[in-house]
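User: Design a sequence. Structure:
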C-alpha cells in the first residue's frame, strides 16, 4: 500500500486492474485474443476466460469475429475504450501526489455531507474528500472507493498524549504498532500495523521520533485530517 499501488475499477464482484488493462490493450494492438495472449505469455483459454468474466459485469469489451471472406480477428468495443479511459482517470487521480508514499484502502461510502464522506474501511471509519473521476454520480452513499492517505499527512502521538477523537481538526485516527522505522538526517519513514495486510506509512521528522522515543514495537496513535484524505470512486 504505497506509491506502487494497483488501481482497480469494480462492477459487481469483479475488479478490473492492471493485468486486465494489459489484456485489452494487447487485443487492440494485435487484433486478436490469440495474439494478445501470446504477447503477454498467457494461454488463449485463460485470456478468453478472463474476458468472459469481465464481460459478465462490465458489458461487451471485445468484438470477436470468426474467419471468413473478410478475415477474422478481434477489436475493442466502445465500452472497452470507455473502461480504459476511466481506468486512466482513476490512476491519474490516485497518483496526483506521485513521489510521496501513500496508504490506499478499499472502502465503501456510508454517508456524505457536502464534499466529505464517511467511508467504512478494514481499518475503521475514515472521513475523506470524495472524488469521482467518472463525473457521473450525484449520490455516493454505498459507492466503492479507494481511500488514499499521504504519508506526510499523518501525525504520530504517544497513546497517553493523543488528542481525543473529534477533539481536533484531524478527526481520523488509527491505533497501531510501529513495525519499521527508517530514519534519515531530518525525516523518518515509519510503518504502522493497524490490522491490515500491509503497514500504514507515516512520514515524520526525526525530531518527532526522538520526542516520542519511538522504536519498533511501540504503540502509537496516528491522526490525519479529512481534507488530506481522498476517497476516489472506483
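Assistant: Done.
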Amino acid at each position: 500500500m504505497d506509491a506502487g499501488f494497483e488501481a482497480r475499477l469494480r462492477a459487481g464482484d469483479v475488479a478490473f486492474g492492471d493485468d486486465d488493462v494489459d489484456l485489452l490493450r494487447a487485443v487492440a494492438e494485435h487484433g486478436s485474443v490469440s495474439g494478445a495472449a501470446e504477447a503477454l505469455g498467457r494461454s488463449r483459454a485463460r485470456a478468453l476466460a478472463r474476458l468472459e468474466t469481465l464481460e459478465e459485469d462490465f458489458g461487451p469489451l471485445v468484438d470477436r469475429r470468426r474467419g471468413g471472406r473478410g478475415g477474422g480477428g478481434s477489436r475493442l468495443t466502445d465500452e472497452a475504450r470507455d473502461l480504459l479511459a476511466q481506468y486512466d482517470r482513476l490512476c491519474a487521480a490516485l497518483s496526483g501526489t506521485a513521489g510521496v508514499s501513500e496508504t490506499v484502502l478499499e472502502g465503501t461510502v456510508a454517508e456524505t455531507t457536502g464534499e466529505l464522506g464517511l467511508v467504512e474501511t478494514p481499518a475503521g471509519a475514515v472521513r475523506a474528500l470524495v472524488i469521482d473521476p467518472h463525473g457521473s454520480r450525484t449520490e455516493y452513499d454505498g459507492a466503492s472507493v479507494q481511500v488514499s492517505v499521504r504519508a506526510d499527512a499523518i501525525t504520530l502521538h504517544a497513546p497517553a498524549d493523543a488528542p481525543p477523537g473529534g477533539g481536533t481538526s484531524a478527526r481520523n485516527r488509527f491505533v497501531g504498532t510501529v513495525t519499521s522505522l527508517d530514519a534519515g538526517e531530518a525525516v523518518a519513514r515509519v510503518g504502522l500495523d493497524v490490522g491490515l495486510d500491509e503497514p500504514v506509512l507515516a512520514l515524520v521528522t526525526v525530531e518527532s521520533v526522538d520526542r516520542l522515543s519511538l522504536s519498533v514495537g511501540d504503540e502509537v496513535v496516528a491522526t490525519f485530517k479529512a481534507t488530506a484524505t481522498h476517497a476516489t470512486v472506483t
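The mean pLDDT is 84. The domain at 9-90 is CATH 1.10.10.10 (Arc Repressor Mutant, subunit A).
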